[in-house]
């Protein structure tokens, strides 16, 4: 990067002052910070994916059990009952 500024004397330009520096340290710092953000973002995506898998399993598990009981009832076994009380869980999901 270079910056030039005119030197004036009595309103006339008598020279120029030029400052030149390398931006390599700045570029390396930007790269380093970018890699940190990419790593943190990737970690957050992986953790949220794992959490969503466990959370979806807790939601879908009781629904699968209820579906299996309903299929057995549809096949004629009317004495079968679901072991879990799913009413409260399903009401919470239906309200949302």
Q: What does this protein structure show overall?
A:
This protein is of the alpha+beta class. Helix content is 62%, strand content 18%. It has two helices and two strands; from the N terminus they run E-E-H-H. A two-stranded antiparallel sheet has the order 1-2. 0% of the residues are buried. The model has no long low-confidence stretch (mean pLDDT 85).
- SSE topology string: EEHH
* Major β-sheet annotation: 2 strands, antiparallel
Q: Report strand %.
A: 15-25%
- Give the overall form: rod-shaped
Measured distance between first and last alpha carbons? 57 Å
Spatial strand sequence of the major β-sheet = 1-2
Number of H- or I-type helical stretches: 2
> What value does the average pLDDT take?
85
Radius of gyration: 34 Å
Instruction: List segments where confidence is low: pLDDT < 50 over at least 5 consecutive residues.
Output: none
Helix content: 55-70%
Tally of strands: 2
Q: Oligomeric status of the shown chains?
A: single chain
Question: Structural class of the helices, strands and pairings?
Answer: alpha+beta
């Amino acid at each position: 990067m270079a910056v030039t500024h005119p030197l004036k004397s009595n309103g006339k330009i008598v020279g120029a002052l030029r400052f030149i520096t390398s931006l390599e340290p700045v570029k390396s710092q930007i790269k380093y910070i970018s890699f940190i953000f990419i790593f943190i973002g990737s970690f957050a995506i992986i953790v949220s994916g794992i959490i969503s898998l466990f959370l979806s399993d807790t939601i879908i598990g009781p629904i699968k059990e209820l579906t299996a009981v309903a299929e057995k009832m549809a096949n004629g076994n009317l004495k079968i009952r679901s072991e879990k009380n799913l009413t409260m869980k399903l009401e919470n999901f239906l309200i949302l």
